[in-house]
Amino acid sequence: MAGTSRDGGPFLQAQVLVGERLGQKKPAAHAYNEGLAAMRLCLFLCLVLLGPRMATLRRSQKKKIQEVPPAVTTAPPGSRDFVFDLYRALAAAAPAQNIFFSPLSITVSLAMLSLGAQSNTKAQILEGLGIGPGEGSEEELHSASQRLLRELQQPQDSLQLSLGNALFTKPRLPIQEAFLGAMRTLYLADTFPTNFEDPEGAKKKINDYVAKQTKGKIVDLIKSLDGTQVMVMVNYIFFKAQWKTPFDPKHTEQAEFHVSDNKTVEVPMMTLDLETPYFRDEELGCTLVELTYTSNDSALFILPDEGKMRDLEAKLTPETLTRWRNSLQPRRIHELYLPKFSIKSNYELNDILSQLGIRKIFANADLSGITGTADLVVSQVVHGAALDVDEEGTEGAAATGISMERTILRIIVRVNRPFLIAIVLKDTQSIIFLGKVTNPSEA
């Protein structure tokens, strides 16, 4: 690969060496050098809501989504967009780390949980997902999920894409037929009796299932169980597609990847000359390139200008993504450089979801739609995602697990201050002794 230095040649985290105007190359010296942050964003968006197979769900959700205000935690109910709020929360929690997750997997998991939620617990879940209280909005969410699941079950010659759900339940747990029927009908969920009193065995059973469904990409979704769980709800996604115009492995060479102003690493850099959708966003200060798979699904790569990453992250909205998609136009890119990489992420989402307003599922929850009694609470929400990008294409997977346990009312009374005592006969209820203790140490 010619010219990989900062001074004169191309370098790229997901960098496109094209001019800000057609036909004018942008010097590498002006390219954005906060590589790690750029990879964070391009990875996040490269599989999210871009392919035509996601259009059904997007259309159903479009009218419910509004622009995200800057302060995630102070936005009024129904005014936020879950996908980008979740991204910002994850990025804020780990500002120096890569971010990669599946909004679809997490959304579907919470939608399934909402089937068993009642009253304020259900309202919080739906509001957190950006779904307002309008009549029929919840039904549209479940119907869109059902259509998407059924569509993904259809065989595709040029794409491997599967999405599925499962319930791992304690034997003899009294699950409501309405909930179970909805899980099977709307979310095509399989059900597996699971002995949670054997925590290691239950963990292995769930993780083996997830590993099989994700072709070994997600192997350790559930990190631990303690025997108190009565149900674990699982969603998985597997994706594998080939580039319509593949990179030639012969042209992949080691090149500099500029993590920051004072840190550079060597990575295998792929290169390609092609015509592909391109857009230069002067308003937000970023360059966009879309790479298409043989299935006509696509990955969108966004490269912010130097110093623009945080501004761009703050302004991410569904409207921004729609504007980008509508603005892409075919352009000849003479030199596209893209790193060949693998990335994995694992998240515990309890705190993040609480920040986004979904709190009651973890305490004082009303999940009575699952068992008929309000004694279930979510103990943990975990998510894992993995992605491989190479010369041939993209392979990715994600899984979300929601663990539930029965609440145990722990009543603690500390008799550590002056108290009264009365000794009462059972049969006559006569008080035969009565007293007050102010200092138990005195005779």
TrEMBL record:
Residues 84-440 form the Serpin domain. Signal peptide: none annotated. It is found in: Cytoplasmic vesicle, Secretory vesicle, Chromaffin granule; Secreted. SMART domains: SERPIN. One of its GO terms (cellular component) is chromaffin granule. Keywords: Cytoplasmic vesicle, Glycoprotein, Protease inhibitor, Secreted, Serine protease inhibitor, Signal. SUPFAM superfamilies: Serpins. Its main location: cytoplasm. The keyword GTP-binding does not apply. The keyword Mitochondrion does not apply. It comes from the Eukaryota. One of its GO terms (molecular function) is serine-type endopeptidase inhibitor activity. Pfam families: Serpin (PF00079). Belongs to the serpin family. Homodimer. This is Serpin family A member 5. It comes from Bos indicus x Bos taurus. The lineage of its organism: Eukaryota, Metazoa, Chordata, Craniata, Vertebrata. The gene is LOC113879927.
